[in-house]
């Protein structure tokens, strides 16, 4: 599907079929539930520089958005020959969480989306490349934890992270649904590819701060990765739910 204007795509297509037969929504966290990617990407730039494997912000965004910490750890190993697997997360998280406590915000209208799903009795969960530790901090800082309870699934739970389908298949199974009954909401190419590989409908979200100034290009890239539809405003998800 070739994207044009993002909002026009959302509002002119028949949205109801996307939700037909679906029983669960799998939310990515960073860049979807919370506007965390500008914070985490900037922090990662600093951390890679510290370890002697520098990349620009644009390179970090292109290579690591939607990926687990295994990806930058491997980059550092290839560039420097150092295995910093044990020390990477504590070093990164100390800097990241200090910024989270001051800067992290939940995505506009996400509470409205979750309330609409709950009203329509559509199940939902988190399926994120982030670690359990990072997800716990995110839920605490933003106050989103009460919506999800224990229905929070991390890449820590599976052998292969996104773009492999393992996490989405694991989460859907734990929630009691088949892949064809699941919708994934993702902001990254890796996440979209994982949803497609899992045989799930995928909605791309490009409203996060990391896509500011280049949303049309981001829309094209998510469509090319296999997203069924792309939008940049969570309020459009409410419309989709109400038409289901």
From TrEMBL:
SUPFAM superfamilies linked: HAD-like
Organism encoding this protein: Thalassospira xiamenensis
Cofactor: Mg(2+)
Alphabetical UniProt keywords: Hydrolase, Magnesium, Metal-binding
Pfam families: HAD_2
Molecular function per GO: hydrolase activity
Keyword rRNA-binding assigned: no
Classification lineage: Bacteria, Pseudomonadati, Pseudomonadota, Alphaproteobacteria, Rhodospirillales
Key word Calcium present: no
Protein name: Hydrolase
Family statement: Belongs to the HAD-like hydrolase superfamily. CbbY/CbbZ/Gph/YieH family.
């Amino acid at each position: 599907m070739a994207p044009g204007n993002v909002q026009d795509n959302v509002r002119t297509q028949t949205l109801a079929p996307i939700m037909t037969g679906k029983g669960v929504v799998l939310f990515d966290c960073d860049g979807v539930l919370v506007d965390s990617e500008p914070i985490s990407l900037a922090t990662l730039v600093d951390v890679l520089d510290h370890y002697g494997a520098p990349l620009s912000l644009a390179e970090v965004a292109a290579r690591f958005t939607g990926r687990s910490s295994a990806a930058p750890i491997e980059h550092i190993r290839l560039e420097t020959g150092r295995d910093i697997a044990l020390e990477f997360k504590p070093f990164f998280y100390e800097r990241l969480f200090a910024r989270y406590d001051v800067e992290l915000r939940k995505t506009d209208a996400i509470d409205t989306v979750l309330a609409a799903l709950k009203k329509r009795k559509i199940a939902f969960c988190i399926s994120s490349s982030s670690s359990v530790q990072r997800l716990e901090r995110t839920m605490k800082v933003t106050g989103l934890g009460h919506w999800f309870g224990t229905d929070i699934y991390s890449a820590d739970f599976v052998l292969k992270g996104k773009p492999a389908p393992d996490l989405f298949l694991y989460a859907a199974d734990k929630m009691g649904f088949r892949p064809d009954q699941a919708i994934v909401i993702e902001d990254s190419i890796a996440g979209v590819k994982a949803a497609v590989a899992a045989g799930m409908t995928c909605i791309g979200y490009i409203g996060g701060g990391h896509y500011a100034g280049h949303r049309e290009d981001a829309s094209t890239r998510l469509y090319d990765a296999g997203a069924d539809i792309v939008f940049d405003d969570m309020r459009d998800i409410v419309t989709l739910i109400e038409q289901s």
